[in-house]
Amino acid sequence: MFELLKAGGILMVPIVACSILALAIVLERFWTLRPSRVAPVQTINELWRWIKKKELNGRKLKALQGSSPLGRILAGGLINAKHGRDIMKESIEHEASQVIHELERFLNPLGTIATITPLLGLLGTVIGMIKVFAEIQLAGVGNAGNLAGGISEALITTASGLSVAIPALICHRYFIRRVDELVVNMEQEAIKLVEVVHGDREIDVEGA
């Protein structure tokens, strides 16, 4: 492996660095964007039970706020529910914007890696071909061994760049989709909470 990286030339250093960074981001996002962590079902069910039994108090609101990103959004709305529907919605939107920002953390760097690694591979290809033509000018085309180094550098960097970019792009698209699904789910729960608190909707007894 080391010999392969060495044959790829200096541009293998940023490509390898991008691959390590991309792997770290993917593992971290897989762990962070779990539905059971972001919007656990037990959190909303417990909240409905508290509201149904009129057991909601400051201590339980604080526990709800720290339980999950969804709990943080719902708690933000409940804290300001007494000020009216509009203020409650604004509080939910304020908390939701911060939560969404956290859910999308590191996705831009992952997308950037998916974009730049093929370009790094292409640059390596160009550099390798420049070396090949420089060798042809000096020694002609008779010695294939002298040309092999530049050609191998061109091919290795291209393959390496694509090998990093393709999985990074797939994971980036996947995480964007997962964030969208989580946001829609949290939005639905927040709307339901506003309607329940202000008497426009009954609590689902089975769900509670």
Features:
208 residues, mainly alpha, 9 helices, 0% strand, rod-shaped, membrane, protein transport, transmembrane helix
Would you spell out the secondary-structure blueprint of this structure?
Layout: H1 2-7, H2 12-32, H3 35-38, H4 41-52, H5 58-67, H6 69-79, H7 85-103, H8 107-139, H9 144-197
* Secondary-structure content class: mainly alpha
**How many angstroms does the end-to-end distance come to?**
57 Å
Strand portion, in percent?
A: under 5%
Order of helices and strands: HHHHHHHHH
Write a compact overview of the structure shown.
The chain is mainly α and about 210 residues long. It has one domain (about 1-200).
What this model shows, in words?
This protein has one domain. It is built from nine helices and no strands. The protein has helices at 2-7, 12-32, 35-38, 41-52, 58-67, 69-79, 85-103, 107-139, 144-197. Helix 6 (69-79) packs antiparallel against helix 7. The longest helix is centred in the C-terminal third of the chain and has 54 residues, at 144-197. The protein is rod-shaped and about 90 Å long. The model has no long low-confidence stretch (mean pLDDT 87).
